[in-house]
Structures are given as C-alpha cells and as structure tokens.
Amino acid sequence: MFCRAGFGLPLLLAASVFSGACHRVQAPVPSSKIAILRFENLSPDTSLDWTGRAVSEILAKELGAISFAAIARAQQPFSPHTVSAPGVSSERSAALLLGATNTISGYFTASNGKLSITAIEENVATGKTVHSFTAGGDILSAADSLARQFSPSLKPFTTRNGAALRLYALGLENHGGNAISAFEQATNRDPAFGDAYLAWTRAAAAAGDRAELERALAAGQAHAASLQPLDRAFLELDEATLHQNTPARIDALTTITKLSPDSAGELRALAEAETSLRRFQPAIGHYQQALALRPDDADIRNLLSYTRMFAGDYAGALNSVRDYQKLKPDDPNAVDSEGDIHFYFGKFADAERLYLASYAKNANFDAGVDAWKAARARLMTGDLAGATQLFQNYHDARTKAGDATIPFRDAKWQYLTGNRTAGIAMMVAAAEAAKNPEIRAACFTQAAIWQLSAGQTQSANKHSAMALQLGNTQSLINAAIAHFIAQPPAAPEEWRARAEHSINGAGAEQVRRLATAYAYLLSHQFTDAASAWKTIYEADNPNDQGTGFLYAWALVETGQAAQAAPILKTNPIPGPLPSATFEDLYFPALFAWRGDRETFTKLGGTPEPAK
Q1: What b-and-e string marks burial along 289-302, b requiring 16 or more CB atoms within 10 Å of the CB?
Q2: Residue 67 DSSP SS3
Q3: Does residue 376 contact residue 390 with C-beta atoms inside 8 Å?
Q4: Residues 403 and 387: beta-carbon distance below 8 Å
Q5: Kind and range of the H or E element at 135?
Q6: Hey, is 43 helix, strand or coil?
Q7: Cα–Cα distance for residue pair 378/417, rounded to 1 Å
Q8: Which of 62, 218, 273, 410 has the fewest Cβ atoms surrounding its Cβ within 10 A?
Q9: CA 229 to CA 192: how far, in whole Å?
Q10: Is 367 within 8 Å of 354 (Cβ atoms)?
Q11: What is the pLDDT of residues 157-197, one digit of tens each?
C-alpha cells in the first residue's frame, strides 16, 4: 500500500511546510551506525546542563554521525528533550531499536571555567567499550579534540562562537516561542551559524507560525553566502517545501545528496519528489542508491516497487516488492502492495488472491481494507455476483467489528455496481445518521458528487454546503469543489472568473485549477477540460491516479484516444480509506473507453459513457 494525498491540498502550515521535508523529520541512523547520546553533567553546576546536548551535536556533526536526541526527535517530531535527562540510561534502548551498532556517550566535569569531557564508544551488541577518550578546555576545543581522537577526518561544526552554541543548545531543549527566541539570538551572535537557522525554521513550523517561518528563511538567505554549502542547500529545501515548489525541492535535494552522498534519508526524499513529477527513472536510481546504504529498509523497497510500477516495469516492480516481503514476511502490507501491482496491470485474479492473503494475515490491517480491495478486484472482471459476495463478507466482518464507515461503503458498493439511485439515497441516509463529523462530511460530499453526475444540481448544492458546514474535515476540498460546480452552467471564461472570485485562502490557486477542470468536464467543455487536466495530470503525484483517468476522458472526447491509451492500459487501485472521490466520472466508463462494452454494461454503464 502506498500513501495517497488524494485530491485535497495541504491547508495547515505544518503540513504544507514539512509534509515532504524528510531531511530533518526522518533522519536515519547513518551508514556508520553510530548514535551519539547526550553527555551527562557530573559537575555540581546545573547551569551547565546544556553542555551535554551541545557536545552531542558537535560530535555528531564533526564525525558525520547523528545525535541520538535528533533521532528521538525524528520519531516524535518537535518533542523537546529535557536538559537534565541522562543520555545512556534513557537513550541506549532506543538506539538498539533503531539499529545502531555503536554508541558514543559520556560525561563532563567543570573546574575554573574549563571542561573535562570523557567520551566512550561502545558496541551495542556486546556492551564492550571500543574506545574511551578524554579532552579538556572550553567546550568547542574539547569537543574538537575528542572528535579527532575518534577520526582524523572531521566535518566542521557550523559555529565557533561559544555564546551562539549555548543559545542553540538551549533552543534544542525547548519548544515554541522559547526555542524560536533562542535560535534567533544564536544567529544574531553568529550570522553564519547554519544549524541555528535550520533549527529556527523547524521551530517556527512546529508552532504553525508561517510569518515566523518566512522570517527565519529570509534571515538565513540574507547570510547564505557565509553558510556552509550543505546548510545553504537545506535552507533552500525548506523554502521550496514551504512554497510547494517541487522542482526547487529536487534541485536542493540533488545538491544535498552530492555534498553528502551517504544520506539515505535525503536520497529517499529526492526519489519521492522525482516520482511525484513522474521522473521515474531518476527516482529508481536514487531509491537504489538509498538501498545500497540501507539494504534492510523495507519502506524504501516498497516505494521502489511502486515507482517501477508507475514506470511500466511489471517484472521489476514484483522483484522489488518480493524483496520487501523477504525482509518482512509477516507484514500484511508487503502482500497488499504486491496485490496493488497486479491490480494496476490488470492481473485481477492475482490481485484478489493476494489481497485475501494479506487479509488472512491480519483482518484488522487498515480496517480490513484488503477484503474491500479483493471485492473491487473481482468487480473489475465483470463478475458482479462474485464481487458482491466478497463485498458481503467484508461488510459482515466490519459490521461485527463495529466499523462506523460501513454505511458509506454499502452506499458506495450500490453505486459502483450500477444501482445509482439507490446508492445516492443510501449515502444521504448514511450522512444524516452519522455522528462522526469526518464520516458525515464524507457521506454528504460523496452524495453531492453523485448528484452532480446525475444532473441533480440543487441537491448537490444543498449536500455539499452541509459538508462545508462541518468545518475542516478531510472532505473539505472536494466538498468545496462540488459546491462550486453546482452553480448554473457557464462558458469556460465564466467558470474561471467565478473561481477567481469565490475560491480564496491557503492553496487557493490549486483548488481553483481543480474546480474549473471538473466544471469543464461536467459541462462537456472538453477542449478546455483536456488542457486543464493535462496540466494537473503532469504535475500531480502518480499515486493520485484519478487525475490521469479524468485527463483520459477529456482526450477521448476530443478525438485524442491514442494519447489516452497509455493511461487507460492501467487500472485505478482502490483507495484504502472511506473518502469522497470523483471516481464515478471514470468508472465504469474506462471499460468502454478501452472497448470493453460488456463489462461496462454489466456495471450499469450507458451507451454513452462520457456523457
């Protein structure tokens, strides 16, 4: 299973800023497998507690390792770690879980303003000491001396200013306004302190403060020429992510991976960004580079399998997903992913078998999604009776489990199997009965979309408005689009003017683009629809397969069936969650577009699928 973004947009700051910024959130244990733990303060002066964190950060940077506190923060983003927490006792077990082979921990004492720092490297498996070194002096010189004893080749830490270092360490141990203030003061003390700018941007994003984030990025960019190249590239990555500029993200990640080629997390992020722009071959290469560094990373193997699938490489996709299964033989997701690959390439019997095998491993995996997907796989063969029996099995199991989304699924099944009127009525009834606002919004939104397809614009207007009244739900974007389309018919230029006038706020341009594209389709303005959907399709993540089939519809209607053929050779993998979609605009019409009138008719299609 892969993660879908759907047709929605990231409206919240934290999502829009760092949803794809794997460079800090998902920092892996590096290829050296050394975790640097916080150093303990054995002096009586508690005002020096920050020093233990600072030593960890310096050693991590200079040795090309990663501080274990940062790894822990990656597991729980934005969670501060108290200054007084001892490193070894609180962090070694987590280092084991993350696969570290060695740890470096230690302690320090202070006398007459000078530190004495002892660092101990241990083998995690045996518990035996590999090295033990001591160095003295001020914090920067002592940490440098320790690092040189571990390795003669060091990467420079990004400040030599002791006051800036103290503020930076205190910021890392705090959150919210305190952290932001500390990082800003650190950059004031040393305007070339790249790590402090990067920490400032993360703290602002964690606080959901876009204005502060813009200010932090501007401050870093104002001093970009004095920053280390790697820190400068990370700032460029943050800025590109904030503004949802995927090409700029790719440029920044490319620079980062060239400067730090052993960064598996950044290679993965680069591959994901390239996949989102359908640059499949470069993405495959970067996933393979990441796997060379992290051969036991099942997630990367899973992502690689989907990227090969989107690239049209059926055999390669199967090879990758089976490597994933070897790493995690008990993981139902590994079997589900192979089912998705077969489904995508039209091997529906194999897909059904694998979905059922995944379901047998864990019937509760993603709320029993594989039983639903097995029914959808059988439906794609035209075996309506067999598919309905599989769906009934799914229905019974989830009803027994107390699944509140079953009324949505029941209505969806009725509609997908050709019972359009009954499906709409059931979806409206499900919405009215639902107590959970997310489910209620999804039901009202789906009913509105179906009503638009049936020409019932008044009802669509009413139900999409009811979904919007439920606030910031997962259905918000599609409810807004349905409400927009429910307006009286108009010429293409009028649809555009309406969108400019009525759709505003965060992500407004992308919502306008989607809303007008859907309006063109439902108004049968196919020339404008083809142009609009081409732009959306080419910029959209391939995980969101629906955009491709909507583009194909417009191509078929404008006499460009040959251009639509590559899209129509594939199949839209069923979504894992009950969410309102525009799937009915291309299902079951895609069978007719492919020349399979028999299946199209069995699933309730009419002689004119696109109308």
Answers
A1: bbbebbeebbebbb
A2: strand
A3: no
A4: no
A5: strand 129-137
A6: coil
A7: 12
A8: 218
A9: 11
A10: no
A11: 999 999 999 999 999 988 889 999 999 999 999 999 999 99
Distances (CA, A) of 290 to 48, 65, 268, 297: 39, 17, 6, 9
Structural domain spans, the chain: 404-480, 487-611
545's tokens: 């397969």
Tokens of 451: 């009503």
Q: What are the CA-CA distances from residue 87 to residues 36, 75, 81, 129 (Å)?
A: 9, 17, 10, 16
> In sequence order, what are the beta bridge partners of 506?
none
Assess contact for 25 and 78: CB atoms under 8 A.
no
Q: Locate tokens 């080419």: which residue?
A: 538
Q: Write out the H or E segment, with its range, that includes residue 496.
A: helix 492-502
What average pLDDT score do residues 578-584 get?
A: 90
pLDDT number for residue 566? 95
Is residue 104 classed as helix, strand or coil in its secondary structure?
strand
Burial class (CB in 10 A: 0-12, 13-18, 19+), 272: buried
- Reference 506, options 12, 176, 7, 6; nearest CA is 12
Sign of CA dihedral 129, 133, 134, 137: negative
- Cα separation values, 49 from 132, 144, 464, 522, 540, Å: 22, 19, 56, 64, 48
Least-confidence region, from 31-40, 42-51, 245-254, 567-576: 31-40
Q: Do the beta carbons of residue 610 and residue 556 sit within 8 Å?
A: yes
C-alpha–C-alpha distance, residues 328 and 335, integer Å: 10
Q: Which two tokens stand for residue 183?
A: 């990082």
Concatenating the DSSP letter of every residue in 356-403 gives HHHHHH-TTGGGGHHHHHHHHHHHTTT-HHHHHHHHHHHHHHHHHTT-
Structure tokens given for 10: 């990231």
Mean pLDDT of 194-206: 93
What pLDDT does residue 112 have? 87
- Given a cut of 50, whether residue 81 has pLDDT beyond it is no
In this predicted structure, the answer to whether residue 505 has a pLDDT above a threshold of 80 is no
Q: Is the whole-model pTM more than 0.85?
A: yes
- Domain at 487-611: CATH code: 1.25.40
How many whole angstroms separate alpha carbon 86 and alpha carbon 56? 12
* Average pLDDT estimate for 536-556: 94
Phi, psi for residue 133 in degrees, rounded to 5: -135, 155
For the chain, helix (H) and strand (E) counts, in that order, are: 32, 6
pLDDT in tens, 282-341: 999 999 999 999 899 999 999 999 999 999 999 999 999 999 999 999 999 999 999 999
What CA–CA distances, in Å, run from 489 to 106, 450, 492, 516?
Answer: 72, 17, 9, 12
Q: 21: closest CA among 241, 255, 258, 245?
A: 241
Number of Cβ within 10 Å of residue 371's Cβ equals: 24
